[in-house]
């Protein structure tokens, strides 16, 4: 992987991670267009790279929401009850994905990590966004709660919604934002909780991909830190560093833009974007563009 390829993938990851459009499909198409992932070992390394540069997206949210993160840290020290309450809410929201992800990970990767299912997820998610956006513009959810009012039950239900995003292409941020709205949070509170919950979910996914053994390749990768070793052997340190930095900067820009845009215009544009992406993906599959019909 060249430095410029790492830069492009980092920017795509950062922009799409927190927008409700799903990063998975965008990264697959970008990798194929750049000729990345053409062999089993290269594909495994590219998959690890795509997950581990999420560390940049995590860093962006840590920076943008540092006052809230600091509040939670003080909560751990017993100095901020509201921060401690939010920590428990994030734990409750994270647990469903942690349990179901461990139990169903192999099945999901075998059955759902195909481009046709990503295309369907784009389409279904787009329709879902348009329905929720229309409901909100008619007054639905206008009297929702602030983040400080979230309960463990509400957080757990959002966590269950997050599990739907294990279907690649669905978008974690989409399901958690809509989940937050449906359980009674204001849009701004649902967005903030989605980002904060992502710190736990994306952090766990990144750590797991780096330390988990990689089966089916050389024996040295079928050990602890197999993913990290595979990336090191294939790419070295520089592309990974560039990818993480690019993801950090682009995620920070995307999050700030998204928050400002949602406050003015709502979710609708993301629904139409997803539907357009689904149509484009269907055309790619029909023409076997970049071999995506068999991915």
Automatic annotation (TrEMBL):
<dbReference type="Pfam" id="PF02673">
    <property type="entry name" value="BacA"/>
</dbReference>
<keyword id="KW-0573">Peptidoglycan synthesis</keyword>
<protein>
    <recommendedName>
        <fullName>Undecaprenyl-diphosphatase</fullName>
        <ecNumber>3.6.1.27</ecNumber>
    </recommendedName>
</protein>
<keyword id="KW-1133">Transmembrane helix</keyword>
<keyword id="KW-0133">Cell shape</keyword>
<keyword id="KW-0378">Hydrolase</keyword>
<feature type="transmembrane region" description="Helical">
    <location>
        <begin position="44"/>
        <end position="66"/>
    </location>
</feature>
<comment type="similarity">
    <text>Belongs to the UppP family.</text>
</comment>
<keyword id="KW-0961">Cell wall biogenesis/degradation</keyword>
<dbReference type="InterPro" id="IPR003824">
    <property type="entry name" value="UppP"/>
</dbReference>
<keyword id="KW-0812">Transmembrane</keyword>
<feature type="transmembrane region" description="Helical">
    <location>
        <begin position="173"/>
        <end position="199"/>
    </location>
</feature>
<feature type="transmembrane region" description="Helical">
    <location>
        <begin position="86"/>
        <end position="105"/>
    </location>
</feature>
<feature type="transmembrane region" description="Helical">
    <location>
        <begin position="237"/>
        <end position="259"/>
    </location>
</feature>
<comment type="function">
    <text>Catalyzes the dephosphorylation of undecaprenyl diphosphate (UPP). Confers resistance to bacitracin.</text>
</comment>
<keyword id="KW-0046">Antibiotic resistance</keyword>
<feature type="transmembrane region" description="Helical">
    <location>
        <begin position="117"/>
        <end position="135"/>
    </location>
</feature>
<keyword id="KW-1003">Cell membrane</keyword>
<keyword id="KW-0472">Membrane</keyword>
<feature type="transmembrane region" description="Helical">
    <location>
        <begin position="271"/>
        <end position="293"/>
    </location>
</feature>
